[in-house]
């Protein structure tokens, strides 16, 4: 069974904690013109997908994969030209959202150690990658 007490998911407060983290993060994105330009007009689907992804990635139930298949996270982000500056802003907002949770310092550090490489992995600005969305990601266009 996933989502045990020893998972980052559980330490974030389970599903409610992850959903609150995604909501806080997306509120910051909505207020950041530079980063907001990468996102579609309706932020709700992305916020929901982020919560599902984080739940699974951090040790909760695999609801993301059950609904959307393999995350293929990097490929799903190819339609967006993501620079180091975008990753820096994403990380700043995610850090603030994480700091808004009631986490022990060790748990915050452990989560951060996973978030930073994840954001850097999405950078693709100088790469020749397919920019069309995956068929199941039609909501991006």
What does it look like?
The chain has 141 residues and is mostly helical. It has a single domain, classed as Globins (Globin-like). 58% of the residues lie in helices and 0% in strands. The chain contains 8 helices and no strands. It has helices at residues 8-11, 14-30, 33-36, 44-57, 63-68, 73-76, 84-99, 105-121. The chain starts with 7 loop residues before the first helix and ends in a 20-residue tail after the last helix. 19% of the residues are buried. The mean pLDDT is 93.
Gyration radius, in Å = 15 Å
CA-CA gap between termini: 36 Å
In total, how many domains does the architecture comprise? Answer: 1
Average pLDDT works out at 93
The fraction of residues assigned to DSSP E strands is under 5%
Can you count the helices? 8
Low-confidence stretches: none
- Helical fraction equals 55-70%
Structural class of the helix and strand makeup?
mainly alpha
Report the CATH C-level class: Mainly Alpha
CATH arch. level architecture: Orthogonal Bundle
Helix and strand pattern: HHHHHHHH
The main β sheet shows up as:
none
The fold-level CATH name is Globin-like
Q: What would the principal axes of the Cα set say about the shape?
A: globular
What tags apply to this protein structure?
single chain; 141 residues; mainly alpha; Globin-like
Write the layout of secondary structure elements.
Blueprint: H1 8-11, H2 14-30, H3 33-36, H4 44-57, H5 63-68, H6 73-76, H7 84-99, H8 105-121
Helix pairs in contact: 2-4, 2-7, 7-8
């Amino acid at each position: 069974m996933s989502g045990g007490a020893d998972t980052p998911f559980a330490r974030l407060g389970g599903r409610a904690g992850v959903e609150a983290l995604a909501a806080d993060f997306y509120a910051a994105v909505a207020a950041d013109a530079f980063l907001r330009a990468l996102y579609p007009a309706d932020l709700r689907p992305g916020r929901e997908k982020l919560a599902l992804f984080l739940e699974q990635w951090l040790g909760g139930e695999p609801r993301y994969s059950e609904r959307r298949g393999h995350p293929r996270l990097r490929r799903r982000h190819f339609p967006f030209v993501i620079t180091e500056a975008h990753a820096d802003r994403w990380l700043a907002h995610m850090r603030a959202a994480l700091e808004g949770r009631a986490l022990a310092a060790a748990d915050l550090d452990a989560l951060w150690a996973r978030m930073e490489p994840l954001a850097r992995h999405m950078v693709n600005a100088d790469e020749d990658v397919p920019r069309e969305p995956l068929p199941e990601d039609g909501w991006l266009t």
